[in-house]
User: Fold these one by one.
Assistant:
Number 1:
Amino acid sequence: MDAQRIAVTVVSGFLGAGKTTLLNRMVRRAEGSRLAVIVNDFGELNIDAAIVSEVTDAVYSLQNGCICCTVQEDLLAQLASLAQLEPRLERIVIECSGVSDPQRIVQTLAYPQLRSQMQLDMVITVVDATRHLQLEGEYARLARAQVAAADLLLLNKTDLVDEPQLQALREALGQRTRVHESVQAQLPDALWLDTELDLEPRALKPLTRVSADDHGEMFSSWLWQSDEALDIEGLRGWLQALPSDVFRVKGLVVLAQGNKAHWLQHVGTRSQFLPATDEAQARATRLVFIARRGFDGWDALGRGLDACKVIRP
Amino acid sequence: MAESDNFSSTHSVQGTYADLILANGRIHTQDPANPWAEALAIRDGKLIGVASLGELEAFKGPNTRVHDLQGAFCMPGLHDMHTHPDLALAPRYSDDLDVGIEDPTPQQLRESILAYADSHPGDGWIYGQYWVRYTFREAGLTPGRAWLDSVMPDRPVALLDRMWGTMMVNSKALELAGIDRHTADPRNGYFERDDLTGEPTGLMIDGAYAMIHAAMPPTPVSVLRRAYRDGVHFQSSRGVTASKYVHVCEQRLQALKELDDSGELTVRIEAAISWQDDIFPVRRRWELLAGERHYYRSARLSANAVKFHFDGTVEPKSSYLLTPWPQESSWRGKLNLTPEHITDMVVDMDRKGIRVIAHCTGDGASDVFLDAVAEARRRNGFSGVRHQCAHSTLLHPGNLPRFKELNVIAEFSPAAWYPTPFASGARSGYGQERLKRIYDFKGVLEAGGTAVMGTDWPVASIDPWLALETMVTRQNPWNDDPACFGDPISLEQALSVITRNGAVAMGLEKTTGSLEVGKSADLIVIDRDLFAEPARNYIHQTQVLLTFVEGQLVYDRHSTLQALGLKAVWQGEPPVLEGKA
C-alpha cells in the first residue's frame, strides 16, 4: 500500500498448528516478488537444496527470488539489515515461535528505527482445530494471546473435526475476529498479498464491484469513492463496527481535520493511518474493500461512509 | 547511657591483652608468609596474634574471652564484589498495586485500581502490575490512556503488562512525566503514538518505562532499608564480610547509612553511584560525585565508586564484541556511550579518587574500557584507584596482561560460568569458540592480574559458596554432568580470589582479606575443611558457623558464643531469599 515501506506479515500459531505448512506455501508463492521469510528453523521448511541458489550469513537465497533466514536473537537488528537489501524487499514474513506471544514481535516492528522502513501488514495466527480447545494452563494462555493478537485467524485442519466441534471453535474464537477456515493451511492470496490498487477515479457509481465474481474466487472486492472529506472520529467508529465478513479496507482517505490525505489500511479490527505524500493522489477518497464472497452488506457500508462525509463550505 | 564511640587514632590508648582468642582452629590465613595457624588473638577489632596457641599465651589477660574452635576451619571473610540486594528485594517489599489475578479482565483491573485508590487515599501514584493485552482485545477495548483515564482521571497511574514489556499509563502520568507528541523516543524503546495526531496513546514500550519512572517518587528509604537489611543478614550468615552494591542513588545511600547507624550494616559495603538513569533515576548524582558521598562514609560504608553500563548482554546480542556475532556479517553489538564519553569520564573520576566500575560483557567493551583507563594513567599517573571491569564475560587474550599493567580489577560473575539449562542456552549465543574462553579467571591470574568474584544477584544466586565451588569445577554443582565451561582454577587460587583479591578490589588490602597481625578481624568459621574432599557438590554445601567483621561477632549460627557474653547481630539459619536454582 505504501511503496516506501516494506510490508510485514507475522505468522503465529501454536506448535503443530500448521505454521510451517503455511510458510512453505508462502515461500513457493514468492515467484517474482521480493519476499523474505524469517523462520525458526530453516531445516523444517524442507526446501529442496537444488533450489537454494546462494547461502551467505545463514541467509538462503532461493531461485524464485525468495530469501529465507532464521530468527536472530536481536530481531530489531536483523530487520534493520534486511531493510537495507537491494533490490528492496516488498514483504517480510516472520514466523513466531509456537510458544510465544506475537505481541513481542509486533512491538519490535513499531520501534522508531524501523517505523520509516517497514509496516506491519497483518498478524496471521494459525489455529489447530483439533487441539485448540484442549490446551491447558500456560499453553492455553499463550494460545489465547496468539488469537487475540491476530488480525486474521486461519482455522486449520477443519477436516479433522465435526460440525459441532467447529461451531464450538467459532464461538470460542469470538464474533469480532476474522476467521478463514482451511484444511492444509491454504491461505488465499487475496488475504495476505497486496492486490494492485486501482485508484483511478471512475465515472461510475460511488460503490463499484472491482473483482469478477465468476471464477470460483472466495473473495470479492469493491471500490468506494467520494470527493468529500471524511470526519475522522466518524470513520474510526465505522471501521470498528465493520462486519467480520470484511477482511480488509485500504486506500486513500481525505480527512476533514486538516483536509489532508492519508493512506488507510484496516485489517481485522486494526487500523493504521499514514500521511500520503503524493499530492496528486490527494484529491479524493478511494477505498477498496475485500470481503467474503456472498457478503451482501455493501449498501449499508456505503451508507455508513456517507454519514462520515463532511460537506466542505 | 549508650555505648560510646571507640575509634582508634594515633594516640588512642591500647590495652595489653586480647579481647578474644579463637583457639584450636585449622586456620587458613591467606598470608603467604604464614599460611596456616591454630589460634587468633583479637583486640579492638584487629588481629594482634596469628600463631599457635602457645605463642598467644601472652595476650591472654584476666578479661580475655577464649573460644575453642575444636578444630574447625577458619579463614578470612568472603568478598562478593558485585551484587544488588535492593534490585532483587525492594520490589517485593513495596506497597505497590498487585492485581493478583492471572488474566484480569478490564473490569477486574478497574476494580483493583479503584480498591487500591480507596485504601491509599490522596493524589499519589498508583503503580503496579499486571494487566494483559488479550483480555482487552477479547473485550473489544483498547488498552491505553483513554481507558485508564475512564477509570482514574486525576491520579497518575502506571501498570505493567504481564508478559511483554508494556507499561500502560494515564494522561495524568504522561503529564507529570512531561511526555507529549513533541517528546522524542528513547533509544532503547518507544511510546506508542496515535497515527494521526502523534499524541502518546499511553502504552510505553521497553526502555520507555524509564521516562515514567523518572517522574515517580523514588522507592521509599524504608523499603530499601528493609531490602538491604535482609541482604546483609544473608551475606553475613553466608560468610561475606565485604561486598559491593553496584548501583546506588541518594535514597539507597540513605538506607545503607541508617542500617550502619543502627549497627545492622554487618558487611563492609562499597556502593557505586549509577552513572546512568537506566535502572532508577539518581537525582543527586552530581552532588554525590562532587563530595556529598562523604556524608555517608564509615568503616563499613563507602560510596567512592561509580557504576555504568557500557554494553548490553548476551541474550539480545547487545554485548559489544571485537568481531561480529556468530551468523552475523557485521553486527558487533552495542556501546551505550561513546568511547570519548567513557575516556573523559574515567580520567575525571580517576582524578577525583572515584573507582569506575564498568559493565563490560563483550570483549569489545572491555577493550574500549581498558583503553580509557590507559589514558587516565597516562594523564594522571597511578591515582591509587583500581578501576573494575564488571562481568568480564569475554576478554580478548591480548587484554589479559593489561589488567596488571593498568591496575584494573577483572570481576567475573557466576551467572553462566558453569553449565545449567539456562546458561547453556543463553550463553551459546556467543558461539562455541568464544564459549571456551568465557569468564577467563585463569587467564587473568596467570598474567598477574587481580581477579574477583561478584554474584550479580538477582542475575545469579547470591550464595558465594556456589560461586566458590564452581570457580574450581566450572561444572554444574547439583548433578554429575561432565560438561565444563571455560578453564577451572585451583581451590587455593579460588580462595585468594574470594578473599584477598576482593580486599584489593575494595582498596582495603592493608585492612582485610587475610589473617595477619595488624589487619582487621574479618573472618569466618565454617563447618568443614574445604581441602578435605573434592570440590564438586561439597563446597557449596558449606555452612558458616561464625562471622566476624572488625572483630565484632556479626553472625553466630548456633549462638555458641553467647556463653562467653558475646551476642551476634544475626543468629540461626540464614534467611531464605531465593528459590532453589
Number 2:
Amino acid sequence: MSAAWQRVLDRHADLFEEIEEGASVAVVPRSVVAPVCDPAPMLLWVREPDGMTARSAEFSGFKTLASDLLLVTNDGTLETALSRDEPLAEIKRQLRAGGMMFMVLRRKDELRSHGWEDFLEWLGMPFLGTCR
Amino acid sequence: MNPLKTLFSPGRLGRYATRNLIKYGACCVSNYNTRDGFITPRELARTRIIAGTGCGIITNQGAYPDPKGEGKSYFRQIALYDDKFLPQFETIARYIHDAGGVAIQQILHAGRYGGIDLGYCVQPSVVPQTLPHFRPPREMSKDDIRRCIGEHADAAKRAVKAGFDGVEVTSFMGYLLASFNSKFTNQRTDEYGGPVENRGRFMRELIDAVKQALPEHPLVVRLSGAELMDQWGGNSEDECFELMKQAADAGVDMISVTVGWQEAPESSIGRDIAPGHWNYLAQRAKQTCPNTPIAFGNRLPSPIMADECIARGEFDVWEVCRPLLADPEMIHKAAEGRLDEVRQCIGSLNCLSRLFRDLPYSCTMNPALGHEVEPEYAITPAAVKKKIMVIGAGPAGMEYAITAAKRGHAVTVYEKGERIGGNLYAYASRDLARPDDLMSVVRHYEVMAKKLGVEMKFNTEANAKFMRSVLHQYDVCIVASGARIDMDAYAGTEGRERLLDALDVAHGRKQAGKRVVIIGGGKIGLVLGESLRKAGAEVVIVERDKRIGGDVMPTFKWRHTTWVEELGIAVHTSSRLKRVTAEGALIVDAKGKETLLPADSVIAAGPRKANQELFAEFEWMVDELHGCGDALMPRGIDAAIHEGYRLGVRI
C-alpha cells in the first residue's frame, strides 16, 4: 500500500512543494478515529527533504497524533482511490461524496505556516470558513 | 393593488399580532460592531433600514450570551451577557416597534464555530474541525452546560428588558445546540449523548429555561431540516425532524427551518441551488409540527413563490434576509405591485466571503449596505442638474446612470453593443450555476433605465470622432467602458494570429471548435470552459498560476474546481502558452517541459486590460471626465456596481 501511494505522491510532487519538512497527513479508517484508541495501522504522508513520503505507522488516537491533518476514510474508499487512474482526484471526489473526510488537527496559522493552504484549496476545502 | 394576498395577511407570534407573514431572518451577523460586543452607530443606522423593510417580524442579529466569548463566532459580533450593552438594544427595539414590527432578538452561541477570540471552541465532544478557519475543540462538562443554559436565559431576559418582544435561539448550522443534536459532533456517553432523545436534551432544557424565564414572550428556535452532514456521520433528515418535534413539544412558539451546516460538503444557499429546492423540508416540518408556526426561507428569494407556498399551507411565515440586504425596499415593492423594480440577491455570497475574512459584510447588489450612517452614500437631489453621458452599458455604467437619474440628472448611455449588460451578459448566459440570477442584474437595469428616463443609445461606439460630434452637449462624461482580454500580452507568441478572444467567443461573435484550449484559468476562462464543455467540446485550461480560479469569489472557488473535475476538464497549472499552430497549443511548464495540446481553437481568456484609452482621448473635450468599474482596473461585478453607485451619488 505504501509503495503504491508513494508512486502517487511522486507523481504529484508539485502539490507538496510548499509543505514544511516534517509536516504530515495521517490517513485513518473511520472505525478507529477517536481521541485515544488502541493502536491501529495507519498510512502517513510525511514531508521529507526529498519530497512527500508514504509510509505505514501506528494510530493511537488523534489526541497524541503529531500530524497536521487527518484524512478519515470509509471502508474501501482508500483502496478504490488507489485503483483509479488519478487517486488524488478520486480523493477529491470522495471528500465531496462523503466517502472521506478531512479533520484539522492544527490551528489555521499553523497549517498555513506548514504550507498546507494550497493543497487544501486544491482538494476543494475552503481554507477559510464557508457557507455554501 | 397588492397581488400577494396571503403573504400580506395578518399573522401571530405568541401573543403578538403581526401585520404580515414575513419575518426578517438574522441570517448572518454584520461585523459592524466593536470588538468587545457593543453596537455601533453604523449598526444602528443599518438596523433602522432593516426595521423599515416592512416585515411583520424583525429578528435582530445574533448576540453571544457568555462573558468569556465561547459563543462568539465573528470578530465584531454583538454581545448580550451584561446590562451594559442594553442602551443600543433599546434603540433597535424602538426602531422595530416604530416601524410596526414584532421585535425578536436572536441569541447566538456558535459552539463549534465560536471562541473566535479564544484559542478553542466548545463542543459536546472533542471532534476535530473539518475547516481550518475554526478553533480546536474542548468538551463541555455538565457544569458548563448548566452555566450555558443560565446564560441563555439571562440574555433572553435582558433582550426583553431592552424592549424586544421575544427571543430566538440557534440550534442550526453547526452552532452549539446543533452540535449537541448531531451525532457527528455529539459522542457523549452521559445523558446528553447517545440516542436522539438524549442528544436533544440540552436543547430542550435550554428551551425550558428560556420559557420559564419569559413565559409571556414568544420563543423561536432555528433548527436544521437537513444538516447535509449525514454522509460524514451526522443526523439523517428523519433525526432532524425528530429533534424538531422535541422542540415543538418543549413549547417553542415558532420553528425556523434551515438547511446545512457551515462545513457541509454540499451547497445549500449558493446560486447553484435552484429557488424552491429546499421547500420540501418546510412542508415536512409543517406536517411534523402542525401546531407550531413554521418559518422558512432558504433559497426562497421570491415573494411570489413564498406567497404560493403559504397559500398551499406548506409553511406559515416567509423568512427572508439576504434578499432584503440586496434590496431593503423589496417588501414594499411587492406590496405595491412593483416587483419588476426589485434588485434581486444574486447569491454571490459576497456577504459571507467577507465575514470569513473578518471583514464587515457588504452586498454586491446594494452598495449602500453598511454605509447607511454615512450621508455621502445617500441618494439626494443633485444641487446642479447636469447633462451626463455614460460610455458603456455594463453594470458600472448602468449603476451610475440610474443613480444619477434618481438624483435628477439627464443621463444618456452610449453602448457599442445592442443591449444592456456588457460582458456580464455573456458571462451570465454561460454561467452553469444559475444564469437567471446574474441575468436579473441586466433585467433590473433595463427596467430602471426605462422608468427613470435614462436615454439608451445602442450600437454607438464612443471615440474621439464621436465625441467631437456631441461636443458641448454634455457637462459630464463617465467612462465605464469595461475591460478586454489583453491580446498584446501575446505579442511575442508565435502563431498569435490564430488565437481567439474569450469575450468574442462568450458573446457568440466567434465560434470555438470541438477541441478547445483556454489560456487563463480565472473566472472568464473557467465559465467559458465549463459552458463549452457542457455543450460537448473537449476543453483544456492552461493557467500561469499554481491554482485556477484566482479571481473567483472565495465562497464559489470550490464550485468551479468541482465543476472542472466533474466535467472532465483537463487543467495545466504553472504553465504558459509558447506557440499556437494548426495542430493546437504548445505550452511550457515551470520546469521548461513542453507539451502540445491538440486543439481546433486556442482561446485567450486572460490577462485582462482596462479600456482606458478614452480617458486620454476625451480629456480636453468635456468639462468633467470620470471613470468607474473595470475601465479603471479589471475586477468584477462587485467593484463595478459599487463604483458606479459611489460615483452616482457624488457627481
Number 3:
Amino acid sequence: MNEKSLENKFLILTLILSENQCHKLERIAKEKDIHGGIVVLGKGTVKSATLNLFGIKSQKKEIVSILIEEKTAKELMDYFTKELQLNEPGHGIAYATAAITANQILCNRQDTRNTGFNAEGKESMYKKLTVIVNRGMSDNVMDIARKSGVKGGTIIHGRGTGSEFTEKLLGVEIVPEKELVIILMPDELVDKVVNDLYHELHLDAPGNGILFVEPVVEVRGLSESHTQQ
Amino acid sequence: MSELTGKLKEVLASVLPITFIVLILHFTISPLESNMFFAFLIGSVLVIFGLTIFLFGISQGIEPIGHGVGNAITKSNSFAVIITTMLVLGFFISYAEPDLHILAKQVDSVTSGQFDNILMVIVVSIGIGVMMTLGMLRILKDIRLKYVFAGAYSLIFILSLFSSSDFLAIAFDASGATTGAITVPFMLALAAGFSAMKKDSKMSEADSFGLVGISSTGAILGVLITSLFLGNGKLSGVLPATDITATTLWELYRTKLLHIAWDSFLTLLPIIITYIIFQIFFFKHKKSKVIDTARGLVLTFLGLVIFLLGVNGGFMEVGAQLGMQLASMDSKAPVLIVALLLGLTTVLSEPAVHVLTNQVEDVTGGSVRRILVLIFLSVAVGMSIFMSALRVLVPDIKLWMYLLPGFGLSVLLAFFVPDLFVGMAFDAGGVASGPMTATFSLAFVQGIAAQIPTADVVTDGFGMIAIVAMMPIIAIELLGALYQAKSIRASGTSILKK
C-alpha cells in the first residue's frame, strides 16, 4: 500500500469547540482547502458553581479531528486560533498529535503515506488505528479487521466535515453522517490490518473513508489473545 | 455561563417571533384591550423563562429517567418485563395527561353523555398503552416503521368508514391531547435508550424515533373502536359557546396557578413513580445522581408551571380575541394571513419541539441540523392553522377532505423516505400539537368560529389538532426525501462504490 512514501509527516489536529464555533470552523476549513475531517458530539465540564447549583454540569461540545500535513500545521493552528479566538478562556482548545500512517484525500490527490513517526523516540508496542467511514459501514470495518486478527473496536458516531462536494438545503449545508472506528492493536498487526482495510474498503477512491494510525505509549486492558496472531 | 445564555437565546429566538406578530397586529389592524395587551406581554416573559427552565429540567430529569428505563428493560432481556412495563407506563402516562381529561369532558357534553368522559380517558389510555408496547416490540423485532404506520393507519381508515366524521375528529384530537409537553420528551428518551442497545447503528438511529407517532395512533384506534359500540350518531348535544369561553378564559384565569400546578404535578407523577421503582430495583444510582435527577424533576415542574401560566394567562385570551376581531372584518384575507403567520411562529415555542430537534442533532451526530427541522415544522404548522381557518370560513370543506389525502400521503411517503425521517416525521406530528397549539392556536380558530354564523365553535374546534398533527408528518417526510437526494449527491462516488 505504500505507493508513495513522502517526506511529509502527518498530524491529527483535534479541536474541542462549542456548536457555533464548530460551524465556523467547518466554513473556514473549507476556505483553506482542508477536507475530510470528522466531528463528534461530546460534553464539556462546567466550572461555575452557580450553574452547578442549577444542575448544569455539562455543556454541549463538538470535537473535530482533521488530518493535516505537518508543514502546514503551525500556520493552520495559528490561523484557527486567531479566527476562533482560542486564546481567550472558554473559547475552545486545539491540539495536534502525530500519525504514523495516514490515508486521505488531499487536494484531489489520493495518497497513502507512511510517515514513519515515532512517539518521542520510544518504540511502543501498540498502535491506535482510527478508521472514518460512512454511516452504517462500521460493521464492515470490524468484519475486515476481525478477519485480519483484531479482537474488538469502539465505534463513535459523528458527522463529516469539509466534504468537497457540498449540497445545500435552504442554505443549510448537508453533511454526511460518519462513523469512527477506533481499534487498539499490537505493532505486528498494524500493517496487515491497514492493508486489508485499505483494499477491501476501496479507500483509494475518494469518499470511501479515511484511516490513520497513531502511536500509543501505554496500554492496559487489551486481551492477551491479540498477540497470538 | 455560556450554557445558560445559549439556552436562553434559543428560547428567545423561538418566543419572540410570535410576540412580534401580536405586537404588530396590536398597533395596526387589531388593537387589543390594554389589560389584555399587558397580560400578553407578561405572558411572553413567563413563557420565555418557563420554557428555559423547563428545557433544563427535561435534560436533567426526564431524559435520564427515560433513557435509564429504556436501557434497563432492554437489559432485562425478557418480553414479560418489557410488555408489562410498557402497558402500565403507557396507560398511566396517558391517564395523567390533563389535556385528555379536558377533551374528554367536552366530548362528554357534546355527545350528551353518550361518550362518557371516564370511558373515553380509559379507552384512550389503553390504546396508548397497547400501541406503545407494540412500538417497543417493533424495535426488538426489527419491524420497519413504515409497515407499522401503514398497518395502523389502514386500520384507522377502515374503522373510520364505520364511524361518523365527528368521532373521527374527536379521535384525532385525543391523539394530539395525549402527546403533551412531558409525555413526548419521556417517550423520545425511552425509545432512544431502548434502541441505543441495538448493534446495527443505522437501525438504532432510526429506531430512536417513531414511538410517539405509534403511541398516538393508539389513542385514535381506542376512540374509533369504542365509537363502533356507541353507534354512529352525530354529535347530538350542544356545548354552548359561552360555556367554552367561560371555562377556558375566565374561570381558569382565576384558579389558574393552583390548577396548573396540580395538573403539572399529575402529569409528572407516573414518571416520578416509575423512577422510584426503577431506582430501587434496577438503577441503584448513587445519592448525588438521585439528587441531580430530583432537581431535574423539580425544574421540569417549575418550568412547566411558569410556561403554562404564561400561555393560559396571556396567550389564550389574545388568541381568541385576535380570531374574533379579524374574522369580523369584511375581507377574509387578513384572518387567513394571520392564521398562517401564527402557525409559523407558535410551533417554535412548543416545548417538545425543542426536545425533538435537539434529539435529532444528538442522534445523527449533528448531521441533520435542527434549524432545518424547525423550518419544515414551522411551515407545516403555518399551513395547518391556515387550513383550519379556511375550514371554519368555508363550511363546504369537511375535515375528512384534509385528513384522508393527508394521512394517505404521509403513509405513502414513508415508503420513499429513509427510516430515520419516517420516525422523526410521525413523532413531529405529536410534538407539534403541544400546549401552545392546544391553547393559543385553538383559541384563535375558535375565535374565528365564534364570528362566523355558519361555523360551530365546538365542532370546528375539534379537528384542528388533527390537522396540526398531520401536516408536520408530510413536511418532515419531504425534508427526508430532499435530504436523501442531496446527501446522495454530496457523497457522490462512495454510494456508487458501495
Number 4:
Amino acid sequence: MKSYLIETGNGRTQTRVLETGAGPQLLYLHSAGGVVENDPFLEALGQQFHVYAPSLPGYLDSEGADNLRTMLDFTLWGFDVMEVLGIEHPVVVGHSMGGMIAAEMASLNPRAFKGLGLISAAGLWLDDYPMPDIFAKLPFELPDLLFSDPALGTQIISEGYDFGSNQDELVSFMTRFQDETFLQDFLIKNARRMGTAGKILFPIPERGLSERLYRATLPTVIVWGDADKLMPMPYAEAFQRLLPHAELVTIAGAAHMAPYEQTGEVLSALARFH
Amino acid sequence: MKFTFFHLMAWPHLADDFREKHHSVWVDVPNSLYDPARGHEVYHNYLDQLEYAEQCGFDGLGVNEHHSNAYGLMPSPNLMAATLTRRTSRAAIMVLGNSIALYNPAVRVAEEFAMLDVMSGGRFIGGFPVGTSMDTNYAYGTVPTETRERYAEAHELIIKAWTEREPFAFNGRYNKLRYVNIWPRPLQQPYPAIHIPGGGSVETYDFCIENTYSYSYLSYSGYLRGRDLMRGYWDQVASRAVDESPYRAGFAQVICVGETDAEAEKLYKQHIDYFYNRCLHVYPGFGEAPGYRTIKTLKRGAIPQLTPKGVKTLSQLSWKELLDQRYVICGSPETVREQCEEMIKDLRFGNLFCLMALGDMPNEKVRHSTRLFGEKVMPKLRHLWPDYADDNRFWCRPVANRRHPDRELRGVA
C-alpha cells in the first residue's frame, strides 16, 4: 500500500492518501473512525479496484481542518483530491460519514463518477429512528454500538496504537481503556478526528442531503447491515427511496462496521462496478 | 475584597436513588423530574436568598446560565438579574454570564446586558463564559469546533455594539448584520466590568489580560486543586508586565458557616452531599464534546474521568475528603475565616464567589450560613488587599442618583 501526502486547494489542506490495488479506479471516503495505514478493508478492496483513500484533515496526519467548515467545503475537498491525483471518472464509495460526502459529490456532479457505493452512509435523519449520539459515547461504549462482535471491535478501534513491547499481547478491552497513556492518546486522536467529523455530523448528521439526492442519477449500490444499531435499516430504505438508480444490498447480521466484519459481502456488493 | 453571593439554583427534589436511576443530571435528565408547582416555590426561595444576601452585606449577587439540567435552573440568568434590579438597590448584580457563542445574533447579549445596566443604575457586572460542553454543544447544538470561533466573533460584535455611537455593518462568519444599532446602551462607560470564567487555558489568561477582564475560576473542587491553575494565571500576568491587582482574579468556593464546627457539619453535611453526589452527577460522555477543547489544551490537560472505573467513582467523595481537600470550607466563623484567608492569599484573588446555597439546602439554613458569613467572617477578610482598595476596574460603578425601587415600594405599601 502506497502512502503519501498531497496538498489540495492551494494549500488549504495537506491530505494523506493511501493507494493500493489494481483495476478500475475507486475513490474511497472513510467513516468518522478513519482508516489506518495498511487498513484491512482497503487491502481487500484493492484486490478488485485501484483504490485511492484520502484522509480528511484531523485523520492520520492530514492537516487543515480549520479550512473545512461546511458540507460544501468537505464535498469540494473530495473533488480537489481527485484533481490533484488526476483521477478520471472513478467509482466513489463511502462508509458512514464518507458515504455522506460521496453522496454529496455524486449529487453535485453525477457525471464525474462511474458509480456510487454507499456503505451504512450518514447524511439523513429520520425522526422515527433517532440515532444514538456518537459524540456522547465514551471510548469503552463504542465497540458494542458499532460492531456485531464487540471484542473484535475493541481490537479494531485500538489499532494504530503503539503498545510497544505489548504489541503482540492480547490486552483485554477493559484493560486498554483503563490505561491512562492509551486513553490520553486515544482522546487526542479522537478529538482531532471527531472534531472534524462534528463539522458535518454534530449534533445531527444531516446537512440537507435529502434535498439534493435526486440529482445523483448514476448507478448506485447501497450496502447495509441489517443489525446496524447506529443507523438502522430504515435509513438504507430512505436512501433507496431518494436516489434515482439505487439498489439495496442487505447483509444479514452485519453492524455499522460491516466493511471490517463482513468484508467479503461488502466487496461482492461493490463488484458490479468492475 | 469583594464578596459575591453566587446562586446556582439547583433543583432540590432529586430522589435519594437519583444517581443509580439516572444517566446524568445534565443534558438528558428527563424534565418529568421537574415539578413546576414546586418550581414556583423554589424560584422564590432562591430569589429571596439573593435579596437577603444584600442585606447581609454581600457586595455582589451572582447568577449564571445553564441549560437542560437539574443542577442549575437558570437558562436565562438575565431574567433573574432583572428581578434583582427591582428588589435590591446596593449590591452589584453579576451575570456570570451569558454564553455568548449561543446567541445569534449576539447583539442580543449587548442589548440585554445594557438593559440590566440601565435598570440597575450601573450596578451590573457581566460575564462571557464559553459555556460548558453540556450546555453549548449538547443542549444547544453548537458544533464543537465552532464554539470558540463563534465566541470570539460574538465578543467582538458585543463590544463594538456597546461602544459605537452610529449604526454600523458587521460582516461576521456567523453574525451578518447590515445595521447594528443597540438601544439601550450601557450606563457604565465605556461598558460594564467583565469577568471571564476560565478552565486553565493560556489563551483565556491572555484574553483577560489584554481586555482588562477579571479571570474567574469557577469550580467545585476547591482551592487546593485550583492552586496550579491560578498560579499559571499569575505567572502569565507577570510575564505580560501588567499590574498584579488581585481583582484581576476571582474564585468560587463552597462555603458553609455554623455557630461551631460541629453545628456546621450537622446542618450542612447532607446538603453538600446532595450537591456533590446528585447535582454533579454528569455523565462523562457529556463532559467534553470532541473538538470543544483545542488539541493544544488537551495535550497539556489531565486525563478526564473517562475510564469505566472513573465513571463509577466520580463524585463519590467522603465528607472528610471534601473538607480535607478543601472542596468545601465548612465550620465555625473562625474556621471559615482562617481557611478563606489562607485561600485568598495563596491563590491571590480579590473576588470571592461564595457558593452558600447548595443542592437541597433549605431556606432557613441558607440564611443562617449567609448571615453568619456576612456578620462574622466578611468583616475580617474585607481589607486583605489594602494596596488595591481603589481599583474599581473590575467592579461596577453605580450612579449616585439612582432609583431605589425596593425602598420606594415599601413606602407606598
